[in-house]
Write a structure and sequence with these properties.
heterodimer; A: 899 residues; alpha+beta; seven-stranded mixed beta sheet; six-stranded mixed barrel; 24 strands; 51% helix; elongated; B: 109 residues; Arc Repressor Mutant, subunit A; three-stranded antiparallel beta sheet; 3 strands
Amino acid sequence: MNWLMRLLRRDSLERDLQREIDFHVAAAADDHERSGMSRHEAVRRARLELGGVEQVKEVTRDARGTRWLEDWWSDTRHALRAMRRAPAFTAAAVLTLALGIGGNTAVWNIMDALIRRPLPIPAADELHAIRRDGLEEGVYRLSHPLLVRMREAVPGGAELAAMSAIGSVYVVADRQPERVIAQLVSGNFFSVLQVGALRGRVFTAADDRTLGAHPVAVISESFWNRRLGRDPAVVGRTLRVNGVPVTIVGIAKSGFAGLTVGLEVDLFAPLSMQHELRYSSNASSSSNADPRKPWVPQNGISWLTAITRAQPDDIAPLVARLDAVFRADVAEAMADEDSVSRAYGMREHVVLEPLSRGFSFLRQQFGDPLRALMAGVGVILLIACANLAGLLLARGAARTHEMAVRVSLGARPGRLIRQTLTESLTLSLAGGAVGVAIAHWFTGVLLQLASAGSRAVPLDTTLDARVLGFAFAVTMAAGLLFGLAPALRAGRTNLHDSARGAGRVQGGTQRVPLGRLLVAGQIALSLLLVTAAGVFVQTFRNILNIDAGFERETLITARVDAYATRYARERVHALHDRLIAAAAAVPAVRSASVSVSALGSGSQRISSFTVPGRDLHPAESSAQENFVSPGYFQTTGIQILAGRGIDARDRKDAPQVAVLSEAAARKLFGTDSIVGRRFGYGHESNVEVVGLARDVRVNSLKETNPTVMIWKALAQVPDEYANSVEVRVAGDPRMVLSSLRAALERVDANLPIRDVAIADDVLRRSLLSERLVARLAGAFGILALLLAAIGLYGVVSYSTARRTNEMGVRLALGASPGALARLVLREALGTVVVGLGLGLALWIPVLGLTRTLLYGVSPHDPATMAVAAGVLVVVAVAAALLPARRAASIHPIEAIRSE
Amino acid sequence: MSRKAALLQGTLDMLVMRAVADEALHGYALVHRLKLISGGRLEVPQGSLYPALHRLENQGMLRSEWRATPSGRDAKFYRLTARGRKRLESEMDEWRELSQAIALILGNA
């Protein structure tokens, strides 16, 4: 009979065993009776000699080899019964565990999706991108002619595909133009990635052969769903993309939306269509380039990221070939430069960067915050475990009697340990199951919180086998963690102690009960979380309060896209004037202006300048540029410290002028007295400085240093299209938003106006990760306080109840009720103080790790720590107050009689 | 006490198999048989007898059947299987070798 059979025939085996032992006892009793004993005495004797009927049955069952399973089953049923008997305890335990396990799973899931999950393409680990290294920071941009030369240098071997940066275009599907995420790609892009089509076809080399001749697009499944309503006749349908009719030739394979994790491309178009589609995102151009002409044939415009597949062994020779082509290209481009610039430029070289996990700005933006959150939820789970361990210990002590009965019936320590542990694991599994549901919900919340717009960050966070495996591992670990101490305690149950009865005056066996130690540990962990919450919230507030150098509360900015919507170059300046006039006519508007780069948009234009008499190293000569209309400084509130701002004098035919920020003055001129001095782009110094402006942070509040900023007159640059309208209002800007939008839309029905928003709200968008961390750290802090309060309340009220008898004796000996309450409170506070001391000692180095995430506050800020400690003490006193009052209301006679 | 138990632990299976090798016995009879054969020198703890019997049965060394005893009660009788006999022989060989070796060592000491 194998063990499975024995398990299935358990009942009949059990009956047989009973009969067999009965026979033994009866036969032995017969013998004893024959020697003169009474029947009763004979049976008793027989049982004694056997060593106890139940004990023998117990060890004999072990011989079956199915005990573990039967025990597990009976333990589980026992655990479930115990859980049903104490519904409040069970609910609290399952909920805290679920929060801990769910939080850990959610954060881990997002980290996993962001950091580990490979791109949804075959053999993703072969994929590499060409990166330019050697200067300040690596860039991916290459010009198209350089790409072609690189392709020629690797004949027959690796195939190079290319893609532009991800940008936006206006698409008219049926009604209004809508802004969608677009990327230009080479004809072999999909074949190099081995991504096929869900419908229709993907691009081939034939789709990218002739400049301007391929009005075709491949769309992502998500775009098809979202904007085209899963139109079954989508292949062959025509869309207007930035005004150009483009035919959809296919939908890319399900789940493929480009190589950037967290940013889904809606529409792919061939590189050769760059000029026709007026695609103009992220490019760097040299002085001899013309960004208003097609980019593909121009050497001077670097805008492509090249990708290729390579096996590990092929990488070194491939890099050597690519680098040779690249350096020849750089040498040629720098032939006219002076030796310093050339030496600087020649430091650049190319490398192959593994791209199996795709590009991700999220990885950079949220990498450290996620690690901090992971630590936070980890600590929450630890607190929850300490909490449960304490509560289970208290409950276990209340069950000493039950355990003692089981011991006297023959249960061995191992059996009791197993049973108690099974109860803990069952509890933990229930928490884990609810936790997975919470993780699913919490992942969504996190992705929503991490998104600037109304759509959650598109990240593949399906709860797959790996994630569920993680949740299970965490669940089991938690169960063991909080179940071990109570289980070992149960295993030590001894008949003598329990025979004395639970609840008597306790001797000196346990001066520092494990329960109190666990509470002290919880307090220590809570101190960490509450302090962390404090410094993160302060960081967020500090960054918010950084002086951006321009008006934030009463400034509204709006975005326009005249270039993408094909405004004729000659009409653009008239359009700028009409936009300003339309905005200025709105009631409550005090002034209006337009500019090329919008405040807080992160869109930057960086150029290199030369200053006569100053020998600037190439790395030191760059500054960010913006082109602005008259009234810009007045509207934005950027303060002019000397000279004047850009005004109506600075017309097209007037001498070229510029205003510099303090940072720019210091960097380029080395002084603040710059009004009247000249500088320029190349050898010619044809720009006169007319003003010095106070320092600003135009890109983001998080800029470490003030922006090195140069403003020039929009009227003096014929080719620039304004992208931003700035409007200063009197009173509440929220009242003006919709009337302003309507006024701007009336300027030209074909000109889309987007993102009409208060400057302050725009700036806050760049603080997403800080806001996320501050909010969640705050939530964790509150949760930690709550758990600590529950833990302390449980342990104090339990120990008070246990000491009813002692309290009664004290009362009888003359202690006042108030003294008893103070005794309880003092002991609780003692535990808290131990916990706080432990916390301070342990967490000072741990908190130091958060330094990179903080701004304007030390990780060990004494005030924050003091407040956190104070809050914990208050919470602890509140938690201990109820048991203390109970102690004070004890009636001495009843208390002593309660034995 | 614990040393005696440890000695018995290894040999109990062998003794039980030897006792039921000639005729089928129930547990109670087995206790007496072992006591009798050893001339009263060996008393098997009755409590460990049943686990041993059940373990050996599960391993296929013993087979059992319910049969009436002279007293009229039904008892579970165990007897050795062919497999059990093989195992008993090899264990007895090992035991003899071991006890000879021990005797040699003790004799030389």
